[in-house]
């Protein structure tokens, strides 16, 4: 039974990799994130590359939905180090600077703004929204490391 399940998983991974070859942009990014979130929520361990991709996805979703304040309110500092590593690895230097600064603000102010919005994130949020998004950099990273990320 276990070998049948493993065979089914291998077929699904091959199918996903083939599907990814036909996708680009947001569709590619969504499929990869969906796969990684499924692994994460099944409580399976993610490797470092997978953590970088999923953490930057979480960062994006939270910041675009409610700013850095929401990112930290919902996650504390669980994902920021992997997101910083991912941004560095992807070459998203302007976003990297924002993420590093946000962590500094969070660590400095977390006791002061545990239940209220931290106004010190506002300029970081504005800059995050203004920049050309790094999604293509993340996609290129995933494509370059597909076998280590989709496994």
Order of helices and strands: HHHHHHHH
Q: How many structural domains?
A: 1
Mean pLDDT: 91
Estimated radius of gyration: 17 Å
| Alpha carbon gap, first and last residue | 20 Å
Q: What is the number of beta strands?
A: 0
Low-confidence runs of at least 5 consecutive residues: none
Question: Which overall shape is indicated by the principal axes computed on the Cα atoms?
Answer: globular
Q: By helix and strand content, what is the structural category?
A: mainly alpha
Please describe the structure with a list of short key phrases separated by commas or semicolons:
mainly alpha; 8 helices
Structure overview:
- The chain has 151 residues and is mainly alpha-helical.
- It has one domain.
- It is built from eight helices and no strands.
- Helix 2 packs across helix 7 (135-144), helix 3 packs across helix 4 and helix 4 (80-90) runs antiparallel to helix 5.
- InterPro entries: DMP19_C (IPR025402).
- It comes from Flavobacterium chungbukense.
- Residues 45-145 form the DNA mimic protein DMP19 C-terminal domain.
- It holds the Pfam family DMP19.
- This is DNA mimic protein DMP19 C-terminal domain-containing protein.
């Amino acid at each position: 039974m276990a070998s049948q399940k493993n065979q089914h998983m291998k077929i699904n991974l091959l199918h996903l990799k083939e599907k990814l070859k036909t996708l680009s942009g947001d569709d590619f990014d969504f499929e990869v994130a969906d796969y990684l979130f499924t692994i994460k929520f099944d409580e399976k361990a993610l490797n470092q590359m997978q953590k970088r991709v999923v953490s930057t996805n979480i960062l994006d979703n939270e910041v675009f939905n409610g700013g850095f304040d929401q990112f930290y309110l919902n996650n504390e500092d669980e994902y920021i180090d992997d997101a910083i590593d991912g941004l560095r690895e992807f070459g998203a230097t302007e976003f990297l600077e924002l993420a590093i600064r946000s962590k500094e603000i969070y660590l400095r102010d977390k006791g002061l703004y545990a239940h209220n919005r931290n106004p010190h994130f506002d300029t970081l949020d504005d800059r995050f929204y203004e920049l050309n998004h790094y999604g293509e950099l993340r996609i290129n990273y995933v494509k370059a490391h597909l076998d280590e990320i989709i496994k």
